[in-house]
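Office hours follow-up: a student asked to see two folded examples consecutively, so here they are.
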Amino acid sequence: MNISITKNQLFFLIIKTQIGIGLLSLPSVIQHSAGGDAWISVLGSGLAIQLLILVYWHLCKRYPGMNLSEMTIVFFGSYIGRSVNAIYYCFFVIIAGYACTLYVRLIKVWLLPLTPGWVLLLLIIGVSIYLALEDLRVIARFYQLAAVLFVLLFVISLATFSNDIHLSNILPVGQSDISQIISGSEKTFFAMLGFEVILYFSAQVKDTPSGILKTITMANWFVTLFYSYFVFICLIGFSQEALSKVKEPVLFLLRGLTFQLFDRLDLIFLTIWIIPMSATIVSYFCLAGKSLATSKKGYQRLVWISGLLVLLVGSYLYKQENMESISQWIEYGYLLMIVAVPLLMWILSFLFRSRHKRRLT
């Protein structure tokens, strides 16, 4: 269970978990609030995440070699701590099921409209389980290899500059007031989730605390700048009216591009994008397993159970016509599980520092 990984592998574990389906619709979502300053909202969200990451890092530094599920036992005791871990397990399963539902709907709309949803759901879950059953080092190496696709996606996106671009759409810079930019940052925050893997995976990194901090900071700003870039090209490629009517503007920006050797770059982009989307599911299977398992066999058993539960959750959510209320509740859950609980534990680490030291020794 405690196989060590390098700091570079931690970097790719973070970015591959964070970068997923949220990017495709993000520009149209945040422009409603921030308008032409939407790219500033992305940077603001990156700053907020960086502050939360500092809390994560300091908490992990105080309890070296321990992941979040082990820390909860230290802070809340055996009974309450295991109950909290069970809630985390259910939370990660729901997130995986919700993400699978979004992926299936996207694939059916853009790629495979005649394929039954349950078939796509089974394929996504099956592949995710297959990889999640491996050691974390194997998963990290796969993420490292798959990260090459980000370069390819960036190269494909450069083709959008052959379209008509309008820099006036983002001018003057700062046209939106602070409240609008903050509102856009709030929406961006939920599109960039996945950094919580730090609380589970950093304990297995063989490096100094300062080295780990540098790695997770670089990962955060890589994702922030990556998102900012795609939001920027959508802002200059669409008018605000057009952007508000398009659900996946990143794909629509590529849809009309045709070259001598390539046609429908949007489908090429989406086909490649399926791999980062699947990586997010794999990471949440890992988090679910690590929430309760204390051995390798227990972890693998939980991954299989999680796969069945994710299938049930995904099948239920797929039948729902309106996902907005479900999405809202999931956002509340994120604020509680990913922000509130770690912050509470961080504060308690100052109040009960000597008691925890005696317990650990």
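And the second, which I mentioned at the end of office hours:
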Amino acid sequence: MEEKELFKRISAEEFTKIHFNEVTLIDLREPDEVTVSGIEGALNIPFSALSARIDSIPRDKPVYVYCRVGDWSEEVAEILADRGYDVTNLDGGYNAYRKLTENAHDAPTAKAVETVKIDAKNLKCPGPIVKVADTLRDKPAGTKAYVEATEDAFASDIKVWCDRTQNTLDRLEISDGIIKAEITKGVHAVQTPAAAEKNDKTFVVFSGDLDKTIAAFIIANGAAAMGRKVTMFFTFWGLNILRRPERVKVKKTFIEKMFGFMMPRGSKKLGLSRMNMGGAGAKMIRGIMKKNGISSLEELIESAKSHGVRIVACQMSMDIMGISQKELIDGVELGGVATFIGSGETSDMSLFI
């Protein structure tokens, strides 16, 4: 006697008639395939990443799964059915659906599509990605964004950003030095990924060098723009980055006063790790950044704070170096080793800078 399948099946023709906003669509193809053509609002979980992300699939709606031709999705449908999902497999996969819809990328919708234009020209990393993320954050699913940027790296960054935030990159072209991207905000586009994916980012900022600090905050801003929870843990010489530039009257011992006198007070006093030349190198780097439209370190710090980056000062290091909380800039919290370990355990990237 043939064993009955636990999941349901649907033909491509029937699939075109369902309301996609009433179900959860799971696209099992690789990100590069989805970038070329996909269904608006579908959650892209490549077959190769299923085991790590299966717990992030919502249970509040019926689930429809599909791959390129329908073979892998059958296996996934059976796995999800065993886990109690109301799951349906698209027979023939995306290829069958696409033939019926004549290569249409998006499901029909009765609502007018909102369009926004984003001018990211002359912005430097992480400016373009941050501006796209900020613009689309509160927009409804289906919103179309037309972006223009001039930074060469944006062509690569926008592909990755769309893939990892579950938005759809409809078109990307470069013409006369301008990178043009068309994006559709997905139904399941998120600013904070599911905890099960462990996509947080954690930084230990040990160095107080200007160049290393700039790099740390550029990466932190980029991660925040992709919806990741970012924790920056400042310890030892990295604490100088967080010091207020003005002198703060705090009662200290003689040794603590000497430490405070010898260390740079605030981000504007940081030197380079190489070719500092008595501070001249740092001034040259800042001048070049300003000339090329790159955000200053101070602007990167404020951007990080405004985008929810958690900035933590190591209490133990502060005690050793005689730094008081009153001497730190606003928006800094105090923490210890457990704070760092806890953040690291939910992260897929921990950097020591």
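Two things to take away from it. The longest strand covers residues 168-175. The chain is about 35% helix and 20% strand.
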